[in-house]
Please model this.
Amino acid sequence: MTRISALDLPQMDPLPPETQRYFDICQEKLGMVPNVLQAYAFDITKLNAFTAMYNDLMMGPSGLSKLEREMIAVVVSSINRCWYCQVAHGAAVRALGTPELGEAMVMNWRYADLDARQTAMLTFAEKATKASAEIVEADRQALRDQGFTDRDIFDIASTVGFYNMSNRVASAIGMQPNPEYHAQSR
Model:
C-alpha cells in the first residue's frame, strides 16, 4: 500500500499572503511547516477552519495547560493509532514535560508518572474516544472532584473531539509525520 504524505497532495501555488505568513511563522518557530498544514493547503477554506480550531483549542484561553492539552492529543492519537499525531504530539509532550513523559504517553499513558488531576483527565479522554455515548454524570463529576470546572470539561471534550477527527483524516490519507519530530526533545 502506498502511503500518501502531505507533500503528495496538490498544493496551491502561490499561497494566499495570509497563509504564506502563517507557514513562514511555522518555519521560523518550528523549523518546518507541519505536514498536516501542507495537507490542508489544497483547500484554503479547510486549512483556515482547521487552524482556527487548532489554535483555539491548543493555544486559546483555558483552564488546561498547554502540556495537558498535548497529553490529551497523545492519548486520543495513541488509542486511534494515528501515526502522524502520535509522533507530532509526542514530541510536544517531550518538549513541554520530559522525554520520559512523552514516551510513556505514546506507548501507554497509564505507565506515565501522572498526578490525580492528569489521571482523571486522561481517563475521561480515553472513555470519550472509545465510548463517548457511555459518559455519564459520574464521569464529569470525577473531573470536578479534581478541580476541573465545567468550562474545563468542555475544553477536554472539545480537544478529544478535534483529535478524533484529525486522527481519522490523517490515517485515512496516510499522512506522514515530518521527520524533524522524531528527534525533538530527546
About this structure: The chain has a mean pLDDT of 92.
